[in-house]
What we know:
- The chain has helices spanning 2-23, 26-31, 36-52, 57-103, 110-135.
- It has 137 residues and is mostly helical.
- It has one domain.
- The model is unreliable at 89-93 (pLDDT under 50).
Amino acid sequence: MPEFDNNFKKSLDELIEVFKKIKNTSAYKEMVKTDLQLKNIEMLIENYELIRNNIPNEIISEFGGQLKTLIEDLTEKLKKDIHTNENETTTHVTDIEAIDKLLSNEKLPEYKINELLDQRNKLKNNESGIKSQFNSH
Length: 137
């Protein structure tokens, strides 16, 4: 039983690490402003050590195997989603920030301002698509 208990807790640890990684993404930071359910993830992360060490053995022995499988599946799925979306989101945010810096130049001609605003708009729309894809998982 102790070995299973340790494996179960290691699976939980890994899931919490993935949640922490998600919490640090720009997509999450934007979504948490409007999605109250995401605040539950924050609460789970903040209270995890207390929760982890106080899971009754009876629950682990009765439901641990099923929960461990669910946790491992969720962890793998979230890791794949993070990996896919992390690179795209980072690229878009960096590009938008670069465009914003260019737009702060007061000597920029109007046609260039319009081009940059169009490009920024496209990037912002793509970023919104990534966020909605991320939110649907």
